[in-house]
Amino acid sequence: YRWKDVALTDGEKGFLYSTFVDKAENNTIYYTKPKKSWADISSSLGIAEDTKFDVMFTNLTWDSTALDKDIGFESMFDWIYSTIDAYINNGKYLLIRVHPAEKGIFGLPSNQKVRDKILERYKLLPNNIVLISYDSEVSSYTLLRKSNLRIVYSSTIGLECVLNGYSVIVAGDVHYRNNGFTIDVETKEQY
């Protein structure tokens, strides 16, 4: 079944659009004062406003959408480290948006944080790789709109990229892959 071939009614399109636009514009679950302006974001990250970049959106380590969803990689961390290693060598800008829920939702912070695992492994990242912490107010939705390339393992924001009209590379076995509207990774070599 190919979802890209299914025609939605105007009502269905309106519902999807309003649901995801509302989440992108009014997300108060993760942010108290989301930073949406690219000028403000690029300044706070220490990169030029005209910098071309790709963005990687990580999952929570305990997220059921990332557990046992491995296809071309041994794990989500194998994917993260492989991506960082590739960008260290190619010199292109990579922004890594750590899932904002790592700071905690409803008072429950993550015990194992992706940010900490990255810094534990790499100590110091080169200037072309920018790690955006879970506690940053940087809007993930501004990043997806401004980036050249969007990369996810199995995060829901991958589907949100598509619903906002942007292509996305999917590295994990998530429910929305293989439907004709994502770029699906099958092997580490292909990636």
Structure description:
The protein has 191 residues and is α/β, with parallel strands linked by helices. The chain contains 6 helices and 6 strands; from the N terminus they run H-H-E-H-E-H-E-H-E-H-E-E. The protein has a 6-stranded parallel β-sheet, with helices on both faces. Helix 4 (114-122) links the parallel strand 2 and strand 3 (129-132). The protein is globular, with a radius of gyration of 16 Å. The model has no long low-confidence stretch (mean pLDDT 85).
Strand content: 5-15%
Contiguous helical run count = 6
Write down the secondary-structure element order: HHEHEHEHEHEE
Principal-axis shape? globular
Q: What's the end-to-end separation, in Å? A: 25 Å
Mean pLDDT: 85
Report the biggest beta sheet as strand number plus sense, adding barrel if it closes. 6 strands, parallel
Class derived from helix and strand content: alpha/beta
Query: How much helicity do the residues have?
Result: 25-40%
Widest beta sheet: strand line-up: 3-2-1-4-5-6
